[in-house]
Design brief:
alpha/beta; 2 domains; 5'-nucleotidase,  domain 2; 6-stranded mixed β-sheet; 550 residues; Purple Acid Phosphatase, chain A, domain 2
């Protein structure tokens, strides 16, 4: 399992060609039921969690991940590779949860490429006594029946620096390739393992690349890009690669037969977690209900303070704050006829519209993240917005030059469509309101975007436009990562902090019948996205660094 992103309860599935109102998908109690079924049928099992776990919901945010940790501690996880969003609450919290002799999360966290920064690089490190050492073990060995298995962990090469440059204070991340080669050699030559599994939060494309260039790994369990490998990818050197999507909606099961230190046979089965085919596990369901009680309507509700921006949650998260005429999400596959997720999503159009109106700005912008829930046509609840915006931004208005607006979109496109996977920035195209343009994904940097218009008029690169978007105290000179002038942060009537989720709630209240119907297809694709490299329907087009066909 991986990319759970704090989702405790089931959500709709509104992806094009798969949408249904008959049942919901995901939910940790339903996921655990599937895990128990597999364990009951098989004597020798390992459960692996591949990262991005403790962020993505109001419950995760306001408990700094503790609620998710407490529930998943019941899952008996054998190994865990932290994802970039597992660093959201800072390095001290990360150490408390995952490092040391008695971490709060009993998941056996591994990260060969995560270090305490050296004194040479950062003399003011808060961890001088640990300078240069690994934060987590690089690998572990599991004995499963007669089979000796080496498990190596790699975390992402980047932390969530869009929130604050200080979130990774005292930590250093390397690409992980040298560490992987070292671990393979050690596990094979000294530990004499029968099988090597890499659990990696580097993304499916980057893991395909590393598997081809560094032989010796039998299986890679991948996370980060929220792909769903409904069929196993296999490289020409035999490495099997699997990624299982997001929000606990999919559980991967691979059954192996090992002969003479090689995989002699394997069988793969994806389990699609839903409320039709699975029953909730009673123990996990009871925990979820207990932990949600202080957040939802009823006598147990209490106020909560956002640990990122100090805003106060005073409204139960299950409160209906508005309605939508269309499904809101960003999850379509790369071959979707309308709005493939890597390019655009109705959820991001809706959110950027809200920011733009709040500032009465020319443009509204939001970073191109992959996580987030699905909202079916009908009610919108506050907790839905926290699934979209669980990272504590405020909203600010400021002046940004047309040239910088254009460059931000070109940079965003290069992070997605560069011919070299190493250049990928880990996100998707930013969401925009008031901006339309034509995009050629096959072109190079600075020539992918054309016919860019602001509210119908051709972009004037010399003009200053009013822009509304994410603002963080530690990046106070920027809006949504762009340098801005005359920045004004939105406050409440008493000058208090207003979270971006509240801005969205205010926006919905201002609409006729409190109902949103965001304009679609704000980005026109001049040429189609690259075709999938396999029978899987990827979300991120995996035509990056030149490699043989798989």
């Amino acid at each position: 399992m991986g990319d759970i992103h704090g989702h405790l309860i089931p959500r709709p599935n509104m992806r094009d060609n798969e949408s249904t109102t008959e049942y919901k998908v995901g939910g940790l109690s339903y996921l655990y039921s599937a895990i128990k079924e597999i364990r009951e049928k098989n004597t020798h099992t390992l459960l692996i969690n591949t990262g991005d776990t403790i962020q993505g919901s109001a419950e995760a945010l306001f408990s700094r991940g503790q609620i998710i940790v407490d529930i998943l501690n019941k899952f008996d996880i054998d190994a865990f590779a932290p994802g970039n969003w597992d660093f959201l609450y800072g390095t001290r919290r990360f150490i408390e949860l995952f490092s040391g002799d008695n971490p709060k999360a009993n998941w056996n966290a591994l990260a060969a490429n995560l270090y305490y920064v050296t004194l040479y690089e950062y003399p003011l490190t808060p961890y001088p006594e640990k300078a240069g050492r690994r934060v987590l073990p690089s690998h572990l060995i599991k004995q499963v029946g007669d089979i000796k298995i080496g498990i190596v962990g790699l975390t992402a090469e980047r932390g969530p620096q869009s929130v604050s440059p200080f979130l990774m204070d005292g930590f250093y991340l390397s690409p992980g390739e040298e560490e992987l080669e070292e671990a393979i050699s050690l596990l094979k030559k000294e530990d004499k393992v029968d099988l090597i599994i890499l659990i990696s939060e580097r993304g499916l494309a980057a893991n395909l690349d590393i598997a081809e260039r560094i032989p010796g790994v039998d299986i890679i369990l991948s996370s980060d890009m929220h792909e769903e490998t409904r069929e196993v990818l296999q490289t020409k050197n035999g490495t099997l690669i699997i990624e299982e999507g997001q929000d606990g909606t999919m559980l991967g099961e691979i059954t192996l037969t090992i002969t003479d230190k090689k995989i002699s046979s394997w069988h793969w089965k994806p389990h699609f977690i839903n409320t039709r085919d699975y029953k909730p596990d009673p123990e996990i369901q009871a925990m979820i209900e207990k932990y949600r009680r202080p957040f939802i309507k009823g006598p147990g509700f209490v106020s909560h303070v956002n640990p990122i921006n100090a805003a106060v949650l005073r409204t139960p998260i299950d409160t209906i704050i508005g309605y939508t005429k269309v499904a809101l999400h960003r999850s379509n596959f790369s071959d979707a006829a309308s709005m493939p997720a890597v390019v655009e999503g109705s959820s991001h159009n809706f959110l950027s519209d809200a920011f733009r109106l709040a500032c009465n700005a020319d443009v509204g912008v939001i970073r191109g993240f992959r996580y987030g829930t699905h909202i079916a046509p009908g009610p919108i609840r506050l907790e839905d917005i926290y699934h979209y915006i669980p990272i504590g931004p405020q909203i600010a208005c400021g002046k940004v030059s047309g040239d910088n607006l254009y460059l931000a979109i070109e940079k965003s496109a290069d992070d997605v469509f560069s011919g070299w996977v190493a250049n990928w920035g880990g996100g998707w195209l930013q969401g925009s309101s008031g901006i339309t343009y034509t995009l050629d994904p096959g072109n190079e940097y600075r020539v992918r975007v054309s016919n860019m218009r602001i509210n119908g008029e051709l972009l004037d690169t010399a003009r200053m436009y009013t822009v509304a978007g994410y603002w963080y105290l530690d990046n106070s000179h920027k809006i949504n990562g762009m340098l801005a002038q005359e920045i004004k942060v939105l406050k409440d009537r008493y000058g208090g902090i207003v979270d971006a989720t509240e801005i969205v709630a205010y926006y919905l209240q201002s609409l006729p019948s409190k109902t949103v119907d965001p304009e679609k297809n704000r980005i026109h694709l001049l040429n189609p996205l690259p075709k999938s490299i396999s029978n899987n329907k990827e979300i991120q087009p995996l035509r990056g660094i030149p490699r043989p066909d798989y």
